[in-house]
Amino acid sequence: LITDVILPDGDGIDHIRSVAARFPLLPIIVLSAQNTLTTAVRAAEVGAYEYLPKPFDLDVLTRAVAGALARGGTVSEDALHDADRALPLIGRSAAMQDVYRIIARVVSNDLTVLISGESGTGKELVARAIHDLGPRSTAPFVAINMAAIPRELIEAELFGHERGAFTGAATRNAGRFEQASGGTLFLDEIGDMPMEAQTRLLRVLQSGEFTSVGGARTIQVDVRIVAATNRDLASQVATGQFREDLFYRLNVVPITLPPLRERRQDIALLARHFLDHAAAQGLPRRQLASDALVALGGHDWPGNVRELENLMRRLAVLSRDEVIDADAIRTMIGRHASLTDSVDVDIGHAVRAMIERIARDDPAALDDGTLYDRVIGEVERPLIEAMLARHGQNQLRAARAMGINRNTLRKRLDTLGIDIGGMIGDDANRADEAERR
């Protein structure tokens, strides 16, 4: 069965639930244009074999159907939570859809998850989502950052210590494993864990028990482990900096978070979300002008989502105007030159540089049939956004400037998920009609 989430006569999820109850061996593939983590999790809850966000490649659907037929059954995942609760993960890009699908498959089990990604990509948010959406959600979520703790204290922090175990240990303290009992322990920056602590951690993962520092009593714990790193752990294994057996214990389900520069279509959505969140916390309410969105899309975001969030909070506090424009964005992030002035190479050179970057970061993309769409997607989006900004969000004039008709432009806006803000719907129609006259 292939079904959409939104049906003319009702909720597709309810339909899937009733079909799965009557035909428990029928594989179900869910399609959705909502493209959120909630949708992916709800589909998994009712036993869907696969979830595909729109738009999708026909080859992907074909492979999903073949896999479902080969499997011959549904994936049953019981959910003990409200899937409609507000979630902290924001993004509708294809890269984030892959993340959502993996999360949906692991929330109802206790498999160990290793989250990889650059600093600021939201690794702890993913860990919290896995915890909050699963059966351990009512138990503690305990986080510990290995890079923030002195090496000599890491074992005491993880496993606790007895009174008098070392100088300054005036009382017994429970470690993070005990604190997280029944819940989830998030081991952030696991690549910074010293080798001796890695050995003890491996034993705990194997046996589920440990002794505190200075203690003799065996302590048993039931925790789910989610680890995260911004390092290449496989390279650390090769150089002897990280235990190979621990790496395989942690890397049962890998999740790789894309940097913000590789999910530019999410920038506007994230920026508005952060401004709304700042307003909810009592900061002045601000809005983003269309040219501000273009400026945000042109930044490389080395600090990723965290950098964008901090920028929005600074703008909410420091901006004198209710509507934030491109000049305010460039000033705040130190880019005073205009978008066009910042590009001192021709398009051909830029495309060649883009292909070289893809070849370096994802060599398989040169041969897997996705290169054309990736390159066109990266070029097309800023082109459309720049033309809309140049023509005051008037779709008809922007379409004429690019040499396409307005219907084609509208389809590309929907496909790329571009929110033009400003004039939409009837306002845009009236503006375009006036332009024709």
User: Structural class, from secondary structure content?
Assistant: alpha/beta
Which percent band covers the strand fraction?
5-15%
Gyration radius from CA atoms, angstroms: 25 Å
Full CATH superfamily name of the largest domain: P-loop containing nucleotide triphosphate hydrolases
Main beta sheet: 5 strands, parallel
What is the global morphology?
globular
Oligomer: single chain
CATH class of the largest domain: Alpha Beta
Concise synopsis of the structure shown:
This protein has 437 residues and is α/β, with parallel strands linked by helices. The chain has 19 helices and 14 strands.
Molecular structure report:
The relative contact order is 0.08. The longest helix has 20 residues, at 371-390. This protein has 19 helices and 14 strands. A hairpin with a 2-residue loop joins β2 (6-7) and β3 (10-11). α2 (37-45) packs parallel to α4 (94-106), α11 crosses α13 and α17 crosses α18. By secondary structure, the chain is of the alpha/beta class. The protein has a 5-stranded parallel sheet. It has a 3-stranded parallel sheet with strand order 1-4-5, with helices on both faces. It is globular. The chain has 4 domains: 2-98, Response regulator (Rossmann fold), CATH 3.40.50.2300; 109-258, Rossmann fold (3-Layer(aba) Sandwich); 261-332, Helicase, Ruva Protein, domain 3; 347-436, Homeodomain-like (Arc Repressor Mutant, subunit A), CATH 1.10.10.60.
